[in-house]
Amino acid sequence: MKRGLLVGRFQPFHYGHLAAVKFALERADYLYIVVGSAQKSHERDNPFTAGERIEMIKAALDGAGIDGARWMAIPVPDAESHSVWVSTVMSLVPRFDVVFTNDSLTFLLFKERGFKVVAVPYKNRKEYSATNVRNSILERKDWKKLVPPEVAKLVIEFNGVERVTALMSKDIEV
Predict the structure, then answer these.
(1) 25-51 b/e (C-beta count within 10 Å ≥ 16 → b)
(2) Cα–Cα distance between 126 and 17 in angstroms, integer?
(3) Domain count of the chain?
(4) With the C-alpha atoms ordered 128, 44, 77, 55, is the resulting torsion angle positive or negative?
(5) How far apart are CA 137 and CA 22, in angstroms?
(6) Is residue 141 part of a domain?
(7) Considering the entire predicted model, what is its pTM?
(8) Packing angle between helix 82-92 and helix 104-112, nearest 10 degrees?
(9) Domain limits at 124?
(10) Phi, psi of 4, rounded to the nearest 5 degrees
(11) Measured between alpha carbons, how far is 107 from 100 in angstroms, rounded to an integer?
(12) Residue 133 belongs to a domain
């Protein structure tokens, strides 16, 4: 059985992430989805908790009809230095054969450790990026079209619109 690894922060999970998961599952029998920067939340670039992100992933993949027996989401915190990050991942994630990524640093770090690394093609990167989703929330644009409906529902349930707006607003004085 070929086991793959896909790393992301998923802040929040959007249609580009869904396309990446589908791409990886076409090339691997099982996929470990690493929820990176797991220790971060309630920050401008990391507004959602690891638990919230895992809920988003599960809801989106269930909604897309992706068999839950083919994947597992695993939260992984950042490491003190890039040179030990792959070791951190390897200590928290079961064995895997191939890494799927479109992040150049992730590509390099796993390649240097001898892993097969496959570049994931972007799906309309300008539109489908978590930064664009967060900016669309802040600017009161139609952000819901950028994420699966299940994710939009959870963002609202998590009070994510208010959280993102508060964290990204330049008008707030502390």
Answers:
(1) beebebbbbbbbbbebbeeeebbbbbe
(2) 13
(3) 1
(4) negative
(5) 26
(6) yes
(7) 0.94
(8) 80
(9) 3-168
(10) -110, 165
(11) 8
(12) yes
